[in-house]
Amino acid sequence: QSFPHLIHSLPPFIILLSKGMLNFKLKYFKLILIVFLVIQILPLYSYYINVSKQQWREASEYLEHKVTNDEPIIISLPCGEVIFRYYYGDHDNIHGIKKVDKETIELLKNKDRVWFVLSFLKYSDPEGSIQKYVDENYDILERKSFFDIEVYHFQKKKA
Question: So what's the pLDDT on residue 58?
Fold first, then answer.
């Protein structure tokens, strides 16, 4: 209810405020203007400098230079697979999983090396089936962290 009144009262308020600012001496006016601009710039700087979204593009660019043709890329979210494919490209070696099941085990059976792109594990795999499977069957070769995404390169453990 009060919002329409605010819209009508805002222009006169701005006019009165600017008229009042013009009554200040020039050096005080400049100081107030500088303080006002700094107050406006700091939140903008913070917004653009701080990463606040998942870095799928950066993760896919990293993997473009690392993955060989026969290495599968396992993504911990089926919906993450769609985003990853958007940046990486549509390849047959990309697979989105929610948990480790028979199909995933069959897919990885004859692969010595595999890439895992993990995101939102506590929501997508609360039982920890992916982590358990990896710990039992693979040794880590390398790890790269992005905002809210972890990329791992694993090699099958030697029997």
Answer: 94
Tokens 């972890």 belong to 150
**Three-state SS for 158?**
coil
Return the residue matching tokens 């006016």: 29
Structural contact between residues 153 and 137, judged by C-beta atoms closer than 8 angstroms: no
CA neighbor of 115 nearest in space, from 75, 65, 77: 75
Tokens of 102: 């028979």
Instruction: Determine the Cα–Cα distance for residues 60 and 69; give it in Å rounded to an integer.
Output: 15
Distance CA 126, CA 14 (A): 53
Alpha helices by DSSP H, listed for 23-120, are 26-49, 56-64, 78-88, 102-108
Say whether pTM exceeds 0.70.
no
Q: Is residue 155 a contact partner of residue 125, using CB atoms and an 8 Å limit?
A: no
Beta strands at 138-146 and 149-156: parallel, antiparallel or unpaired: antiparallel
3-class SS of residue 66: coil
Tens of pLDDT, residue by residue over 43-73, are 888 877 876 788 999 999 999 999 987 899 9
Cα separation, 16 vs 12, in Å, equals 6
